[in-house]
Amino acid sequence: GAATGSLPYLPVVNDVPVPVYGWNWVPVDLAYGAVSADRVRHGVHLAAQAGATLMRVWGGGLLETDEFYHACDREGILVWQEFVQSSSGIESTPSRQPEFVRRLCRQAAVAVRARRHHPSLAIWCGGNELADADGHPLDVAHPALAALRKTVRRLDPERLFLPTSPSGPSFSNEPAPERQAGTAIARAGGDQHDVHGPWEHQGLRSHYARYDRATCQLLS
Fold first, then answer.
1. Per the residue annotation, which of 129, 174, 178, 200 is the catalytic one?
2. Which of 14, 83, 108, 135 is 20 to 30 A distant from 100 in Cα terms?
3. Whole-model pTM?
4. Beta strand pairing call for 16-17 and 22-25
């Protein structure tokens, strides 16, 4: 039932589809090197108790630790791991320079080899909120993301690769104010395959009414 041309967003484990419920995982402490394995295990356990089936390690974070992956293996939570790229709020498009692309792929190869043995790992993603100058999510036509996909296919071919989060074609789940004619969601139609937002709370009633109007397949 997916929209025509959309990327695959439904993980399938041992021929069983796994609906995606979860949230972003960020380092559990700003002093990242001081995080104990017990704290990581406790956080992952709480996520499992809350019903999470997948957690996204976003591109503004790090390649998560073996302790995190071992905890997800034990709890049965899938992992969406992004390579370390993220929009800065100023420039959301990765460099096209060949040396940057080569360095990115060298780092990605180290990351893939270090984590591909974990059964919880389901998705590799090029990074967080990577977009062109007009705000449209990038795809594998960008040389950096094409090179990352090639690296994943070479080293971990059974895992899904997504170019960025959100992968669009629309970027935002954000409708226009009700007083305006129509909403961004209504105008987007079938373009809301994978989106982000809204980021600001709208009040106890209208916030969930806004989410209920969403037409996206995934709110990553």
1. 129
2. 135
3. 0.90
4. unpaired
